[in-house]
Amino acid sequence: MTDKRKRSEKFLNRELPVFAFFLLLSFVFWYLNELSKELQGTINYPVRYINPPKDRIVTGDLPEKLEMDLRGPGYSILKVKLSGSRAPVVIDFSKITPRRIPGTLPRYYLVSSGLISGFSKQLHADFDILAIHPDTLFFGYDKLVTRRLPVIPDLRLELEEGKKVIIVTNPDSITVTGPQHILDTLSGIPTKHRTFKRMNENFKSKIPIACPDYLQTLQKRVTVEVTITGKTTSFFGLKQTTE
Fold first, then answer.
1. What is the CA angle 89-94-100, rounded to 5?
2. Where are the alpha helices (DSSP H) in the chain?
3. What is the number of other CB atoms lying within 10 angstroms of the CB of residue 166?
4. Assigned fold of 145-242
5. Sign of CA dihedral 137, 140, 144, 145
6. Helix 74-82 crosses helix 2-35 at what angle (to 10 degrees)?
7. N or C: which end of the chain has fewer CB within 10 A?
8. Which residues of 80-110 are buried (b: 16+ CB within 10 A; e: fewer)?
């Protein structure tokens, strides 16, 4: 019985790798055969928006990616799904005619199905784009303006009892470009929040500007000068604690 069991184990050890190899080979041939057939799939593809009207900026929550329903050879769909770095498809506002939504604010919409032909040409696709989601893109145009806005230091200081503080920024204001409806609501541009503990001497510090991505400014940092003297007070929206 022992010899018979050993012979059986040797047979399995010898034949199992062969069986696994042919099983894998048959799967590969089956998969390649499936890829040659016409299949359907879905992919999320990056998109970039360019060329808004002169002196205008596009506003609204336009998606960074669009979902596309595809139909075509399986290998073609698999290739676009596996591509690591995808150059985004482009929506050129100078070449489309969006429709305006009635109302006081200038709002527009664009039907995604009208983009299929242009996307197919950009992708040099040998598959069909059946649909694009969301099926409608909503956005607005706003006037692009430039304003000079004050810098608002966002600091928290821990001071000794009986001290006051004066804060001065250099420069005290910066030039900002962005949508008019946003700049009209801003009283200034804050610095990034900083905390300074147990301060009892004057000091200077370079602090980055906390400027949102939809606003543009050449000024990235400002110098904040802090002078400590007298008794405790609050200046320029300063947050401070005393011990």
1. 100
2. 2-35, 74-82, 116-123, 180-183
3. 15
4. RNA Polymerase Alpha Subunit; Chain A, domain 2 (2.170.120)
5. negative
6. 100
7. N
8. beeeeeeeebebebeeeebeeeeeeeebbeb
Asked if residues 73 and 39 have their Cβ atoms less than 8 Å apart, the reply is yes
Q: Tell me the CB-side half-sphere exposure of residue 139, using CA atoms within 13 A.
A: 20
For residue 124, give the DSSP letter: T
Query: Tokens 């300063």 correspond to what residue?
Result: 238
The owner of tokens 């966002």 is 154
Whether residue 36 contacts residue 10, with contact meaning beta carbons closer than 8 Å, is answered with no
d(Cα 216, Cα 102) in Å, to the nearest integer?
A: 30
226 closest CA partner among 170, 160, 161: 170
Structure tokens at 237: 């929206």
Q: Average pLDDT per run of 10 along the chain, which is 243 residues long? A: 56 58 55 60 89 85 90 73 73 90 82 91 84 93 90 86 84 92 90 84 90 87 87 46 39
Residues of the chain with CATH 2.170.120.40: 145-242
Q: What pTM value is reported for the model?
A: 0.58
Tokens of 132: 């694009």
Residue 42, C-beta contacts closer than 8 angstroms, at least 6 positions apart = 67, 68, 69, 70
* Per-residue model confidence as pLDDT tens digits over 60-104: 889 999 999 988 876 677 677 766 457 889 999 988 888 888 876
Q: Give the DSSP H/E element, type plus range, for residue 225.
A: strand 221-229
Beta bridge pairs of residue 71? 40, 128
Q: What is the pLDDT of residue 198?
A: 72
Say how far apart CA 140 and CA 30 lie, in whole Å.
Answer: 50
